[in-house]
Amino acid sequence: MVKFRINGSLATGLLVIQTAFLLVLYSRQNIHFSDTAGKEKVHLLILSSWRSGSSFVGQIFSQHPDVFYLMEPAWHVWGTMFQNGAKVLHMAVRDVVRSIFLCDMSVFDSYMPKERNISSLFQWSVSRALCSAPACNSFPRDEISDEVSCRTLCGKYSFYKAEKACKTYSHVVIKEVRFFDLKVLYPLLTDPSLNLKILHLVRDPRAVAKSREQSKKSLMRDNGIVLNTNGTIVDDYKYQVIQEICRSHVQMYETAVHKAPSFLKDRYMLVRYEDVVRDPLLEISEMYKFAGLKLTDNLKNWIFNITHGQSSGDKKEAFTITSRNAASISKAWRKVLPFKKVEKIQEVCKGAMNMLGYQLVDSEGEQKDLNLEVVLPRKQNRFSWT
Ligand SMILES: *[C@@H]1O[C@H](CO)[C@@H](O)[C@H](O)[C@H]1NC(C)=O
Ligand SMILES: *[C@@H]1O[C@H](CO)[C@@H](O)[C@H](O)[C@H]1NC(C)=O
Ligand SMILES: *[C@@H]1O[C@H](CO)[C@@H](O)[C@H](O)[C@H]1NC(C)=O
Does 116 contact ligand 1 (Cβ within 6 A)? Predict the structure, then answer.
């Protein structure tokens, strides 16, 4: 048996040095990972469709200092493989989403040129995380970011920074409009390396149709992919794409609510855009709670500002639709759409509208009568409407 004899003051000295070393290590770790330490990461998918208020809801998450946010990464998949249909592309899209949740951006190798930077990502500048440290050193990460100033200062940074930044956040949030079937996401829900939650955002199809008409051109390529036309662009004047979107809402909602497998429990939340617009703070609080995020005073002030038509300084708003003008825009279809079109949309989306609490109108008179409320109030039970 060998015995070491160390005198008391030397032992104390060594202990102090070791403790100090560990403390330094720990605090360094903490500077970068303060939010993830000891807590499981959260992966939130905002599942929505085009022109349904998902950019607005996406911003609500993107501006949170704990969130790494990307908007519609599947845009790259669809753009690369535009001759395929949405169904064939589902799995590639799922793989992209899974990789981003794990902060593995190498998945973009298939969809982007080798020479690329942060600005190669679709709509990168709406992501506060890509506009602040450590992705971009021009702005601190706990401030509300501004798309315009971000675009001028942060685009040139190395693409690798996106991955580096992602790893420092406790929440990864992706907004996607290119899923049409909840079952495609089952493998992600059961993946032990993920902690996936799904926020399903819907909007009155008549308001969606009105908004889609305003951005007709930009939607034509996607329309072709939804309808599987082998790369031919499509003007959705027959509302076939809307029909497919409505069908997918019914499928997702029914699957989640009536045929939910056990792994979906507490992992699915349905939100109607109209409810967010009607009472932003209440709905945002509930969405944050679902995602495990705290509503800070700074965010509260910002939300108050954007829902009361105030932008900070004289800079342009980070996104075009604030909740306040959204409230009137939400009703615009009632003045603008010809009743014939309203009838047609109601015909193809009847099932979804009944299920989601959007009341049909039977005449032009009813359509134009703004005293007639067509968005039925939400009941206590989040999953049913009167
Ligand atoms: C990097 O970003 C800037 C814009 O911020 C762009 O002009 C430049 O071409 C980009 N470089 C590459 C290699 O993509
Ligand atoms: C799809 O389009 C490509 C190119 O336009 C064409 O070569 C191909 O034959 C088409 N495929 C089908 C199944 O129509
Ligand atoms: C809200 O608006 C006020 C007035 O324009 C501005 O001073 C303030 O910085 C804004 N706050 C946030 C968090 O955006």
Answer: yes
Q: What is the position in ligand 3's atom list of the atom closest to the CA of 313?
A: 5
- Give residue 80 CA to ligand 2 midpoint distance, Å: 15
Say yes or no: CB of residue 155 within 6 Å of ligand 1.
yes
State pLDDT tens for residues 250-275. 999 999 998 899 999 999 999 999 99
Cβ of residue 312 lying under 6 Å from some atom of ligand 3: yes
The strand pair at 42-47 and 171-176 is best described as parallel
In a domain, 75, yes or no: yes
Calculate how far, in angstroms, residue 118's C-alpha sits from the geometric centre of ligand 1. Answer: 8
The count of domains in the chain is 1
CA 124 to centroid of ligand 1, rounded, Å: 13
* 8-20: pLDDT as tens digits: 665 555 555 665 5
Q: Which ligand does the CA of 121 lie closest to?
A: 1
- What CATH number did the domain enclosing 173 receive? 3.40.50.300
Residue-wise pLDDT tens digits, 44-84: 999 999 999 999 999 999 999 999 999 999 999 999 999 99
- Is the CB of 83 within 6 Å of ligand 2? yes
Nearest to 201 by CA among 258, 125, 253: 253
Asked whether residue 133 is domain-assigned, the answer is yes
Q: Residue 12 falls within a domain, yes or no?
A: no
- Whether 157 maps to a domain, the answer reads yes
**Domain with 120 in it:** 38-368
- Does residue 327 have a pLDDT over 50? yes
Q: Whose C-alpha lies nearest to ligand 1, atom 7?
A: 156
